[in-house]
Amino acid sequence: MEGLDRDKINKIILEASKGSKFYENELKKERQVNQRIEKMMQQKAKITEQQLQKAQAEVYKLSAELEMRRDLSRVIVHVDMDAFYAAVEMRDCPELRDKPMAVGSMSMLSTSNYHARRFGVRAAMPGFIAKRLCPNLVIVPTNFDKYRAVSSQVREIFSDYDPHFLPMSLDEAYLDITDHLEQREHWPASRRTYRVCSSQTVEEREGQMLEAEEETDNLSPVLFEDSPTVSPTLPEPAGDVIVFGTCAEEAVREMRFRIEQKTTLTASAGIAPNMMLAKVCSDKNKPNGQYRIPSEHQAVMDFTKDLPVRKVSGIGKVTEKMLGSLDITTCAQLGQKMALLSLLFSETSWHHFLQISLGLGSTHRERDSERKSMSTERTFSEMSDLEEQYALCRELCEDLAQDLQREGLKGKTVTLKLKNVDFEVRTRAFTLQCPVCTTEEIFAAAKDLLKAEVDHVSPQPLKLRLMGVRVSSFINVEEKKPLQKSIVGFLQAGGSDPNHSQRSAPVFRTVADKSSESPRKELSSETGEQEDKPKHQNRWVIDSGGFRAPQQQSFFQRVQSRRLAEESELKAREENAQTSNRPTDTKPVTNADASGPDKAADTKSSTNQESSPAASMPQSLTCPVCFRQMGTIDLTALNRHIDKCLSESVTGCEKTSIDTGQERWSDVCEEKKDQEEENTTSSDSCHSKATPSTSEGDRALVQDLPSKDDGEKPSTSVLNSVSFSTEFGRGGLTPSRPNHDRNSNDCDSHASDHLSHESKPTSVAPLKMNSSNSGGVFSQHSKGTALTCPVCCKPQETDDLSLFNRHVDVCLNQRVLQELRETDSPANGNTEDPQHILKSRGKSKRKGSSPPPSKKPRAVGTRHTIDKFFRGGSR
DNA sequence: CCGCAAACTGCAG
DNA sequence: CTGCGCTGCAGTTTGCGG
C-alpha cells in the first residue's frame, strides 16, 4: 500500500508553504517563542542553589497535599469516535471506503480517514496542501446535520452507562461509570448479553474486516498494541451472542460494541481514575481500541512516567517547546524539575505541571460554566475597500446580534478582530456602559473601533483577510434565585385555576438553559434529581409531572443539563431556520436610528471619552409595564407608551387586551423598521436620524435623565414613571423581551435580578412564566381550552400561549408597579443608579471567579488551573 | 499597591 | 492556478487611575 515517509511529508509541506505570507508569519511567531525561551534561560541562569532548595521544599509540600487528596475511587472513561466525520461519510458512501479521503474544504480539513493519514493528511491541514501530499485525496464537504444525528445515537448509549456524561464535542465524551459498575456487578448475565444483529450484509462486514486488517498492517504496531483483555473488535457473524463481563474493561467494550452495532462506526476509549489520564488512554489504542489504567497508585505512576508531556491535553506546541528547552519531554522529567519550573513559570502554570507529573486530574465536573463571550468572524480574500469593510462589519454585527438574541444575551464589551493580509492579528475592544445585543448597538461600537484602526494605518488602506466581532462581559444572571423560589407560591395560587390545573399541575423546574424542555424527553431515565441544575443558573420553567424544587447537583449531573441545553439549542436553531420570516416586531429597533442630532454631533466633534462608542451609542429602553422593548432611547416616546400602559392598568387587566397591545406595538415597529432600512443603506447615516419629534418640554425632561455619558444617578426631578423606566431600561436590568422570538425566554433572569434588589418577591413571577418555547407558563393546555389569567382571574380569549403569557406579564407587572408606588418612593433607594448596581455586581462576580494575578514573568497559558481541580475537591 | 480594561497568546476541537 | 478556519476559554502582560 502506498504512503509517504515522514521526511517526504515534511518536505512537501514545507515546499507548499514556503514563501507564503502565512509561512512568513509562522516564522515570525516562532522567533517570538524563541525569544521567550531565551528570556526564560536568562532567568534560569540567575537562580541560586538556595532558591532552588526553597522551591523544592515548597514543591514537596504541595505534592504531599495533592497526594493526600488523590482520589482513585472513580472510574472515568473517555470515548472518542475514530475519525468521526470521515467515518460517517465513508459509511454513507461506500465508494469512499478504499480511497484516501478527508472532510473539509480546500482551505481547511476537519479530519481525514486512516487511509489518507498514511500520506500525512491530517485534521487542521489546508486541503490544497493535503492534495499535494496525496493527489488522489477526495475532499468531502462537512455535513454537520449528519454528524449530529449520529452523535445523538452514540450519546444515547453513553447515557446508559452514565446519565450525566460530559460531551466535549460531537465525537467525544467523558463518562463516570463508577455507579454503573457497582450495579453491573449484580446484573444477571442476560442483561449483559447482546445479540449481534447488524443491518449490514455479511459481505459488507467482511469488507470492513479486511479493511481493518489492512490498516492494522500498515500502521505503526505501537498504535495497535491493545490492552491484553481486548476482544476482537468486530462483531461475530450474525446470529451470535456475546456476553460481556462485569469489569470496567468489559463494560466499555460492551459500550463500544453497541456503538458499532448501532452506527457501524468504531470508537476508542480510555479508562482511568481521572479525566486527564482517561483522555490520554483513549488515544493509546486508537483506532478501535481501548486502554485502561487500573485505579492503583503504582499503575498511575508507571503510566505517567514515560508519558510525553505533549500528549496531555492543555500542553500544546509552545509549552512543549519551552519545556523541551529545559530538557523536559516526559512527565517523569516534569516531576523532577518542578522546583525549577516553580521559579520560571506562574503559579497557575506550575501547579498544573505538578498535577500532570503526579498523574492527577479532575475526577468530577466543575460547576457548569456559563458562556462568557460570543463571536463571529470571517476570512476572505484581500479586502482594502473601506466601504466594503464597513459593510462586512455590519454584516458580522448582524449575525452576532441574531445569535446573541437567540440566547437572550447582552454584553458590554465589543471587540473587533482584524487580520491583515500578512496574517497579523489585531484586536480592539471597547466596553460600554450598558449591555447590548442588537445589530445597531454592536455596530455602533464596532465601526468606531474599525475607524480607529483605519485611521491608525492611514494613509495606507487596511488590507484585511479576516474580520471578526465579539461581545463579552455578559450581564450577571446570578443572585436571583431566592426570589424565584418565592414566586412559586404565588404562581401556584394563581395556577390553581381549574383551567390549567386539572390535567396535571404545572410544574416548575430549573433548567440550565431556557429551551431544554423538548430534548429532555429523549432521555431514557427521567429522575428528578438529574434534571435539577446548579443554583447559579436556575430558571423556573413549567413542565408536567409535579413540583420539583431546585437541588444542588452533584458530580456529572450538571453535564447533562449542559448537553440538554446544547441539544435544545440545536433544535431551536433548526426551528429558527425554518421560520425565517419573523413578525415585524421581532427586530429590536436600532438605536443609532433613534439617536438624536445632538448625539450625532457628539460623536463627530470630540475625541475624548465622550465620543467613544459607549457615549455615542444609544441604548434600548424597555417598558417596565409591558416589558416590550422600545428599540429607542427616545424617552418622550417611552413616556407616552408607559402612560398608555399605566392608564390601561388602572382600568383593569381585561382592558390590556393582548391583541390591541400587539397591534399598537407592531405599528411602532413598522415605523422603526422603515427607519432602519433606510439606515442600512449607508453606514454613515446611523447617527443622523432623529427620532420622531418631541416637544420642547419633553426634551428638557430627557436631558434631565441620566445618560451613559455621566453615569450619575437619575435626577430626582423627573417624573416617577420616567425615572422608573429609566432605571429599568438604561440599567440593562430589565429583560429585553424579544417578543418575536418563539425560542427566547431568555432574559427572565435579568429581570428577577433587578427585582431582587427591589425586594419585591411576588412581583417576579411573570418573568419566569414566559419562558418555555411553547410560550411558557401554561404550555400544558390542550388546544381550544380557554386560558384564565392567574393574576386577574379573567378568562382570556386566546389560544396562543405567548400572547397569554404576555397578558400575565402585564397583569403581574401592573401589580408590581402598584406595590412600588405604594411602598417605595424615589427617596428610599429605588432610584439607585442602575449603572452603579451593575457595576458593583460585576465586580463581585469577577472577584469570585478569577484567580489571583500572577507575578511571575514568564508563564504559559494552561487550560486547567489547580484552583479548578480543587474547587470540586475536598478543600 | 490594587483593580480594571485592553491587547495578546495558547490551546482545544 | 490560487491557497492555511472558526469559536470559545483561560491565562499573561501592560498601562491607567484611584
UniProtKB/TrEMBL annotation:
Compositional bias (Basic residues): 838-848
Annotated EC: 2.7.7.7
UniProt catalytic activity: DNA(n) + a 2'-deoxyribonucleoside 5'-triphosphate = DNA(n+1) + diphosphate
InterPro entries the UniProt entry points to: DNA/RNA_pol_sf, DNA_pol_Y-fam_lit_finger_sf, DNA_pol_Y-fam_little_finger, DNA_polymerase-Y, DNApol_IV, Rad18_UBZ4, Rev_trsase/Diguanyl_cyclase, UmuC
Keywords: Coiled coil, DNA damage, DNA repair, DNA replication, DNA synthesis, DNA-binding, DNA-directed DNA polymerase, Magnesium, Metal-binding, Mutator protein, Nucleotidyltransferase, Nucleus, Transferase, Zinc, Zinc-finger
Biased composition, class Polar residues, residue ranges: 577-593, 603-619, 680-695, 714-726, 769-780
Superkingdom, natural source: Eukaryota
UniProt-listed GO biological process terms: DNA repair; DNA replication; error-prone translesion synthesis
Cofactor(s) in the UniProt record: Mg(2+)
Region (Disordered): 494-537, 551-619, 652-780, 822-875
GO molecular function: damaged DNA binding; DNA-directed DNA polymerase activity; zinc ion binding
Biased composition (Basic and acidic residues): 511-535, 563-576, 661-675, 696-713, 738-760, 864-875
Gene3D superfamilies according to UniProt: 1.10.150.810, 3.30.70.270, 3.40.1170.60, 5' to 3' exonuclease, C-terminal subdomain, Classic Zinc Finger, DNA polymerase, Y-family, little finger domain
Domain (UBZ4-type) ranges: 786-816
Principal subcellular localisation of the protein: nucleus
Domain UmuC: start-end pairs: 76-316
Coiled coil: 20-65
Subcellular location(s) of the protein: Nucleus
GO annotation, cellular component aspect: nucleus
SMART domains recorded: ZnF_Rad18
Recorded family membership: Belongs to the DNA polymerase type-Y family.
Protein name in UniProt: DNA polymerase kappa
Taxonomic classification: Eukaryota, Metazoa, Chordata, Craniata, Vertebrata
